[in-house]
């Protein structure tokens, strides 16, 4: 279960899909199933960033980049030929009237800032998507 304080462009089902995909794509070998089981066993509690970092072995900034790619893919559905997932995220956000010349950089920067919270909960990206500065 993922708790958010406000509405998001993605509903909670889509956020669960993103986490599922994150675990599926960025976990290797036998640990994949262990991660998925961990996630679904703990649905009653919000998923914490530290859980993801601790259970994947990825550095926080790597987790941020990979999650942003998945969010971009999910928001866009399909991306323009040759576009990186980050670019797909940019195109989709642009269509949602978000401003900023280097939006993807801003998003990743803000995700990284949220990762500095010791027990930061996985509500990072909704705040970023809501930001319009």
Would you identify the regions where 5 or more consecutive residues have pLDDT less than 50? 1-9, 85-109, 111-133
Number of DSSP helical runs: 7
Please tell me the overall pLDDT.
51
- Which class best fits the helix and strand makeup? mainly alpha
Q: What kind of sheet is the major sheet?
A: none
**What is the count of distinct domains?**
1
Helix content: 55-70%
Order of helices and strands: HHHHHHH
The count of DSSP E runs of length 2 or more, i.e. the number of strands, is: 0
Q: How big is the Rg?
A: 14 Å
What general outline do the C-alpha atoms trace?
Answer: globular
Q: What portion of the residues fall into strands of 2 or more residues? A: under 5%
- Termini separation comes to 29 Å
Descriptive terms for the model:
133 residues, mainly alpha, 0% strand, disordered C terminus
Quick summary:
By secondary structure, the protein is mostly helical. The protein contains seven helices and no strands.
Please, could you describe this protein's structure?
- The chain is mainly alpha-helical.
- It has one domain (12-130).
- The chain has helices spanning 12-26, 31-41, 49-56, 60-76, 85-95, 103-115, 124-130.
- α4 crosses α6.
- The protein is globular, with a radius of gyration of 14 Å.
Itemize the secondary structure elements and their pairings:
Blueprint: H1 12-26, H2 31-41, H3 49-56, H4 60-76, H5 85-95, H6 103-115, H7 124-130
Helix pairs in contact: 1-2, 1-4, 4-5, 4-6, 6-7
């Amino acid at each position: 279960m993922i708790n958010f304080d406000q509405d998001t462009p993605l509903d909670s089902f889509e956020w669960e899909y993103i986490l599922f995909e994150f675990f599926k794509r960025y976990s290797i070998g036998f640990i994949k199933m262990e991660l998925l089981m961990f996630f679904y066993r703990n649905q009653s509690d919000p998923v914490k960033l530290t859980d993801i970092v601790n259970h994947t072995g990825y550095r926080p900034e790597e987790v941020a980049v990979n999650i942003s790619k998945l969010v971009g893919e999910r928001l866009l559905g399909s991306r323009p030929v040759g576009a990186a997932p980050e670019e797909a995220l940019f195109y989709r956000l642009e269509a949602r009237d978000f401003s900023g010349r280097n939006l993807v950089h801003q998003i990743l920067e803000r995700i990284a800032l949220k990762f500095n919270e010791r027990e930061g909960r996985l509500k990072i990206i909704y705040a970023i998507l809501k930001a319009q500065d």
